[in-house]
What we know:
Elements: H1 6-32, H2 40-65, H3 77-99, H4 104-111, H5 114-125, H6 133-149, H7 162-185, H8 191-212, H9 221-247, H10 250-254, H11 259-272, H12 279-296
Helix pairs in contact: 1-4, 1-9, 1-11, 2-3, 2-8, 2-9, 3-7, 3-8, 4-7, 4-11, 5-6, 5-7, 6-12
Amino acid sequence: MTKHKMGIFFPAVLCTALWGSAIPVVMTGYELFQIAANDIPAKLVFAGWRFTFAGLIVMALFAVRSRSKLMPARGDWSGILLLSAAQTVLQYMLLYPGLGNTTGVRGSVLSATSTFFAVFIAHFAFADDRLTLRKTMGCIVGFAGVIVILSGAGLGGQGITLTGEGFVLCSALGQGLGACISRKITPGRDPLMITAWQLTLGGLVLLAVGLVSGGHIVWSGGGVLVLMYLSVLSSVSFALWTVLLRDHPVGKVTIYMFLIPVFGSLLSAVLLGENVFTLRNLCALLLVCIGITTVNYQKDTGNDRGVDPSADS
């Protein structure tokens, strides 16, 4: 892949568009699978099938691309299990129920805060990734966008619930934690192998919890198409993003992450019929995008480091 800037632009925009589409498509899936807003077990079954299939797809990609052993080494299992617990189980055990109690626009904006959580956690986890004035300002601006999107009285906003916006914010914290765990355990290991196993194991856990809790989804042709799209989205976007990070400076790739909430909000308007173009929504989206761009901006030093999401919504 060429290292010309256009060699980054189109693949990066495709990845962010795929990730941005995840939340409105998941919410569309609730309707197609006839999942009620308060039916948490059914939502976990939906999430479990998605990530189990996604993990198997990544596993197949790994098997085709690599001659390495598909089974992780004994010393790799602890890191994979920890990553799976944070990035798949914790994140989506909260995100899927939370999305049923909020809007697609709010879900997209709140999920984007995983970038800021990752920056904050990295400050304590890595000696070479401390908070700087630029990163701190980026986080402040980004969370100002969260305050705006959650504002209510006088600005046409709706109420805030723990099981809605609260769950989505906590899921973003799980994703930010997962990004730091991924950075810790990935060096010297194949990221596709790690992702394949953490997605598969996490998906199976979600599926088991949902089924044991009495979760049930009504299968339909449209629902299956949504499930397959979400599964392929998780595998293809990660594989493509991994190639971009391999061939280009990290900061020049992750700067495009500001597009994820943009695509998520726009597609929420298209797929869910939500009104994105209110002053409150646009201000919140602008602040979060500025925050993400500020956090990920790096001068061209040849060894810049950004925030690798290592997961999709």
